[in-house]
Amino acid sequence: MGRRSRGGESSAIERYSGLFAERTASMTSSAMRDLMAVTERPEVISLAGGLPDTSTFPADSYAALMGRIAAGQLAKALQYGPTEGLSAARECIREVMAAESVAVEPDDVIVTSGGQQALDIVCKVLIDPGDVIVAEGPTYPGAVSAFTSYQAQVEQVPVDDDGMDTQKLRERLDDLDRRGKRPKLLYLIPNFQNPSGVTLSLERRREVIEIAQERELLILEDNPYGLLRYDGDPLPSLRELDEDELVIYVGTFSKILSPGIRLGWVTAPRPVLEKLNLAKQAADLCSSSLAQHFVAAYVAGGGWPEYISSLRGIYRRRRDVMIESLESELPEGATWTVPKGGLFVWATLPDYIDTTDLLARALRENFAFVPGRAAWVDGSGGSSMRLNFSGADEGEIREGVRRLGAIVGEQVDLFGTMTGRAPKAARKAAIEPQEGGRVVPFTPIEPEAEAGGAA
Amino acid sequence: MKVALLEGGRSLERGVSLRTSARVRDALVRLGHEPIGVDADGDLVPTLRDLAPDAAFIALHGGDGEDGMVQELLELLGIPYTGSGPEACAQTSDKSLAKSLLRAAGLPTPESATLDGEAMRELGAAQALPEIGQKLGWPMVVKPVSLGSALGLGLAHNADEAPAAMLKALSYDDRVLLERFVAGRDLAVAVIGEAAGPRALPAVEAVPVGDSYDFEARYEIGATNFVCPAEIPEETADEAARIAVEAFEVFGCRGVARVDLLLGEDGSLTVLELDTIPGLTQTSLVPLAAEAAGIGFDDLIETMLDLSSPRA
C-alpha cells in the first residue's frame, strides 16, 4: 500500500474535499443535471436548451467576413486586445444598443466573454458572502449559479403576466429590511424573461426604477432578447428610464448573432465600470480579438438588422406553432405563457405532477424540457417547465409537444384513476385547474389576441 | 489487457455511470491495462466485435446494463465481463421479482405490493389502495420496480399522499412497488464472489443529512454521511453479512454486488434490494467498504476484473 496511486486514491474524496473553497459548496450535482445529461442523445427532441438556431446564419457571409479579416487585419485579430474591448467592437455595440433606443458612448461599454461573464464580474465587484440579490421568480438558472458562486443569497419575487410583481417586491424588501438585510442588486430580465417568457410592463418598469431610487439599490438589467420581439412595440429599457445612474446593463450577441463567438457587454455607472474593467482584466485579460473583429466587420457591413429581422420571422412562426400545439395537446388544468418575443414558453401543469419526474417519463419518449424547479432556489416551480421554441424546427416542436401532451394526459388519467377525481373518458372536462401548488399564477392568453403587430 | 469499459448508455442513470467509469478508467490505467470507453448505444455489438477486447468492465447503471441485456450480448460475443450474469441481473433489477425470490428462499424483506400503470388504467387497480394501506400501513415507501439509485423514490405518509408518490414512481417505470416502511438504519453490505465462496465486506451505514436517502443525497459529497464499518453490535454485523452472502447466492451473483439492508429499531434485519452493478463513484458505498477491508480502489477494480466470467 506504499504507492500513492493505490493506497492514496481510495481516500481521494477526503483529500480534495478539504481543499475546496467554501464558495464551491453551492456547486453541486443533482438528479436534474443527470437527467439533463440524457437530453443530449441525438434521438431526443429537446425543447430544453436555450439555443438560438445558428443554422440560419449564411455560410457565405461568414466566409466573406473571415476572408476580409484574414486579408486585412489578421495579425491584430490574432493578438491580445484591450481589456475593455476593441474600439470598433464597442462602436458596434453602441449601434446595436441604439437600435433598442438606448444611447450609450463606446467608452461606457466593456466587451465581455458573453453576457455570462458580465454577470460574473458584476458579482465579483459587488458581492460579499451573504449579500442579497433579489431576482425574479422564476429566473435564469445560469445567473443564480453566477450569484451563488460568490455566496450571494438569492431572494426571488414571483412574476405574473406583467413581469415581477412590484407590490411583492416592496413587501420582500421591507421584510429583508426588518431582518437587517439590504440587497445590493436587483436582477431583472425585463424583456421576454428567461424562463417565463413574460415582459415587465412599462408601469412596473417605472416602479422598479422608483423602488431602486428610494432604497438606493443597483439594478442589474439583463437584456439578451430585446431585439427578438415578435408582437407589439418595444418598451424602454430600465437603463433608459433611469436618471439616477442605478442601472448596470448587460447585453449579448449570443441570441442575435451567435453564442459561439462568446461576446457580450456591460455598461454601468462610471465608478462601477472602472472596477469591472479591473475584474475582467484579472479574469481573462480581454475577450477574443478574433470574435470582436468578426462582430465589427459584420455590424459595419450593415446587413445585421435584416438578419435579426429574418430570425424574428422564423422564431415568431415557431412560437405560434408551439402555442397552437399546446392548445391542442395539453389537457385542461395546464396553463402557459404566450411570450411576445424571446425564446421561451413557461408551462404549468396540475400541481400533483412533478416536472422533474415528468422529465424522466418524457425521456423514455425521447422528449426533453427544463423542469421548473431549476429556475427557483427554494424548490418551487415543481409543476412548471420551460419550453424553448428557437432551437427546434416547426415539425420538431409539433412532435415534441404532441409527446408532452400524451405523457401529461397519461399522468392526468392515472391520477384520476387513483383518486377517483376524473373518469378517464371525460379527462379534459373533469380536471380542475389546481391553484394550490402553482407558484406563478399565469393565465393562458389566446394566441389570436397576441398575434397582432409585428416588430 | 485490453478492457472495453462499457459506460453511459440510454438509461436515466447515465450521469452516474459516467462518474463511475471515469474513476474506473483511471484505475485501469494505473493497473497497466488499456481501457477503451464504449458508450452503450445502438452500435454496441459491432463496436465490441471490432474491438475484440480481452474483457468488458460494465460501468452501466440502470436500464440495459442492469437488467441483463448487455450481459446477454457479451455472452453471445464471447467476451468475459465483470459482475453477474444475465439471469441474476434480470432478477435483481426487478425489485418485485427479487423480493418474491428472497421470500421464497426464507430471507426477510419488507412486505410489499406491486401495481402496474396499465392495470390501474384498465382494471382500476389503484382502487385497491385502501387494502394495500391496511396491509402495509402508513407511511409507505413508493418506488419504481426497476432502477436502483433512488430515482422516483418517495414516501407516502397517508392515503392522500399516495397518488402523487405513485405518479412520481410511474414516471420512471411502468410498475410501482409499494413497500412497508421500516423505521431504522440503512445498511449496505458489499459481497465479493471469491473462488472460495462469497465474502461479505464490512457493512456501511448511510446516514442521510436530509429527510430521506434520495438521489441527490446519494451522489452528492457531504449530503450523506457514510459510516464504515457501521457502528452496530458485532452479532448484528455478522447477521447482516450472513444474510447478504445468502442473498448473493440466491440469485447466483458473481463478481461484486451490493446488498441493501434495513436494520429496524427492533434489531431486525431485512433485505431491500440487490445491486449487481454497484456504483463506484467517489460517493459510492462499495469502494468505502472495500477500503475498510483493506482493499484499495485499484485492488477492488483488479479483483472485479479477475472475477470476470467466463475467466479472461
Keywords:
heterodimer; A: alpha/beta; eight-stranded mixed sheet; 18 helices; 44% helix; disordered N terminus; disordered C terminus; B: 312 residues; alpha+beta; six-stranded antiparallel sheet; 13 helices; 13 strands; 24% strand; globular
Q: What does this protein look like?
A:
- The complex is a heterodimer of chains A (455) and B (312).
- Chain A has 455 residues and is of the alpha/beta class.
- Chain A has helices at 4-8, 12-17, 31-38, 59-72, 74-77, 87-99, 114-126, 141-148, 166-178, 202-215, 238-241, 270-284, 289-300, 304-329, 355-364, 394-419, 427-430, 447-450, and strands at residues 45-46, 109-112, 132-137, 153-160, 163-164, 185-188, 218-222, 247-252, 264-267, 335-336, 344-348, 367-368, 370-371, 384-388.
- In chain A, the strands form three sheets. Chain A has an eight-stranded mixed sheet, sandwiched between helices.
- In chain A, helix 8 links the parallel strand 3 and strand 4 (153-160).
- In chain A, helix 6 packs across helix 13 (289-300) and helix 7 packs across helix 12 (270-284).
- Residues 1-11 and 423-455 of chain A have low confidence and may be disordered.
- By secondary structure, chain B is α+β, with helices and mostly antiparallel strands.
- In chain B, strands 8, 9, 10, 11, 12 and 13 form a six-stranded antiparallel sheet that branches.
- The radius of gyration of chain B is 19 Å and the shape is globular.
- The chains are: A alpha/beta (455), B alpha+beta (312).
- Chains A and B meet through helix 1, helix 2, helix 3, helix 15 and helix 16 of A and helix 1, helix 7, helix 9, helix 10 and helix 12 of B.
